[in-house]
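2024-03-11 09:14:02 DEBUG pipeline.ingest accepted 1 chain
2024-03-11 09:14:02 DEBUG pipeline.ingest length=300
2024-03-11 09:14:03 DEBUG pipeline.predict start
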Amino acid sequence: MDVDLWRGLHGGYNPLPQRAASLLLARLGDRTAHVLLADKMAAAARLTAAGAVFPVTPVVLSQGQGVDPDRLVPVAAASAGLFLKPRHGHGGAGAFGLRHDGGGWQIDARPVDATALAARLNRLLGADDLLVQEHLAPCTALADLATADRAPVLRLATARRPDEAPFLQSALLTVPVPDRHPRDFLHGGIQVPVDPASGRLAAGILLGAPRRPIPRLPWNNARLAGRILPGFEDAVAMALGAMTALPGLALVHWDLIPSTRGMVMLEGNTGGNWILATLPGAFGLETASLPPLLRAWLPT
């Protein structure tokens, strides 16, 4: 799949296949900073002091403990919804939205009975702690890009050369596709490159059909191409502040949501997906090429 995707986006031979890229990116620079970002609780505590804003986390469910969903009813009732995710990991694995409407539970806007929910919670708790966070609604200006309970996610790549200040390397907005699972890499999200200088959106693409530009969403005609992303400067400042607090890292991809309470950071990834990392560059929307930058971090 990587070979075909690369050819469709960039043409020619992929110089750094996904597995090789993941292994390389996870090893460049300060190992302790990699470990910190892999722990969402520890990263939030450290980076809040640097000015980053994270989701409110009213409950943390500990690994190995059994849990009855009824325990979460008061927490769910006190907010517009919840979002649960493992404390460690990346790429949204194990994460889901959760609501209780008085009549029962919903996972990602679909009804689920308490028995099935309990089984899911306890299966995840067999492997990791679970963070129970507030559900983030999209800001009003981007409500037409949301799908059910899922807001668009802004992915900012911040990079630095050894011993230099960090800079914004590229930006990408992922718009969720109705009736597709968010982990469906080819069809679950429309990937929209963002001009790093202005915050202006380009036409989007589905990775399953990378040669077909999408200037407007096909299901509601919402505009993509030419639209200015609200709060973009705030998001960039937040990501650069977080990167400055981790001086030993070459490249971090930060996931943020433009929410009703402003830009909120979800997490930072030092591995990430190489196709997504290089996608803005395929459209000329990057401030520096990644391969030469990463080579500068390799041991001599």
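2024-03-11 09:14:41 DEBUG pipeline.report Residues 232-244 form the longest helix (13 residues).
2024-03-11 09:14:41 DEBUG pipeline.predict end
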